[in-house]
Design brief:
InterPro entries: Methyltransf_11, SAM-dependent_MTases_sf
Radius of gyration: 17 Å
EC number: 2.1.1.163
Keywords: Methyltransferase, Transferase
Helix content: 25-40%
Distance between the termini: 22 Å
GO molecular function: demethylmenaquinone methyltransferase activity; S-adenosylmethionine-dependent methyltransferase activity
CATH class: Alpha Beta
CATH topology: Rossmann fold
Largest sheet: 9 strands, mixed
Pfam families: Methyltransf_11
Strand order of the largest sheet: 1-2-5-4-3-6-7-9-8
Strand content: 15-25%
CATH architecture: 3-Layer(aba) Sandwich
Number of strands: 9
Shape: globular
Structural class: alpha/beta
CATH superfamily: Vaccinia Virus protein VP39
């Protein structure tokens, strides 16, 4: 990759559809396309207020309470699991304001590219302001149909978002489609493997605000059935981290 090339131009070259530059990010949806926001949680992710406070307050606090793991520790685990020191293209699906995209980009080799992908215009506008960089580009689109050709990225991740999405398993399969053979995928999502009373309380709360809860086998089985190898899973409280390799 040409290290002197603007990351937006590098990303534009990876897209399989037209994109316009808006507020510093590439947009493949256009202004007339509204985000699907049927639940309270999804409406929140499209709020300008939430986009402003998400990175500094909401995300670090809520995930620490849910997992007991700090944001910095999460980022270190993600970089190691994705093997970013040897990756050249990273896709961060549902990146929000880029609070993972930017630090993960700094773990990539010189000249590599990190693409943050989200459907929320307020989140991406915030990402460009707070988490832009010389190896980072943000794209607005629908993760159900990722606008990239097969086997485009060396590493693909989605942290803290699949439980918000209307078709989380289809989106995960899309992530696998754009992952190169030998590449790594990692997800951080909800976990419903607690003792029955705790599980019932968590599930009831999640249902109320529109979050999905996934059991221990959901993504492990999906990865296994897709032929992935080196599947690793870690669970903490209400959160699970799952990583795997797409075989060559």
């Amino acid at each position: 990759m040409n290290t002197s090339q603007d990351p937006r131009e590098s990303t534009r070259g990876l897209l399989n559809t037209a994109a316009v530059l808006r507020h510093g990010f590439l947009d493949v949806l256009g202004e007339s396309t509204s985000s699907p926001v049927p639940t309270f949680a999804q409406r929140a992710m499209n709020s300008r207020l939430v986009a402003t406070v998400y990175e500094r307050l909401w995300r670090p606090t809520s995930f620490y309470l849910a997992s007991g793991i700090t944001a910095r520790a999460e980022q270190r685990r993600a970089a190691a699991a994705l093997r970013l020191s040897t990756a050249h293209r990273l896709l961060d699906v549902a990146c929000g304001p880029g609070n993972f995209t930017a630090p993960l980009a700094r773990c990539l080799p010189a000249g590599a590219l990190a693409v943050g992908f989200d459907i929320s215009e307020p989140m991406l506008t915030r990402a460009v302001v707070d988490n832009d960089g010389p190896q980072t580009c943000y794209v607005r689109g629908d993760a159900r149909v990722l606008p990239f050709d097969d086997e485009t990225f060396d590493a693909v991740c989605c942290f803290g978002a699949l439980y918000l999405m209307p078709e989380p398993f289809d989106i995960t399969r899309e992530m696998l489609r754009v992952l190169r053979p030998g590449g790594r995928i990692a997800i951080l999502t909800s976990y419903s493997g607690q003792a029955a009373p705790v599980r019932k309380a968590l599930t009831a709360t999640a249902n109320l605000i529109g979050l999905a809860m996934f059991d221990r086998r959901s993504f492990v089985d999906l990865f296994s059935s897709a032929g992935l190898v080196d599947i690793e899973q870690q669970t903490q409280r209400a959160v699970q981290f799952v990583a795997a390799t797409k075989p060559r």
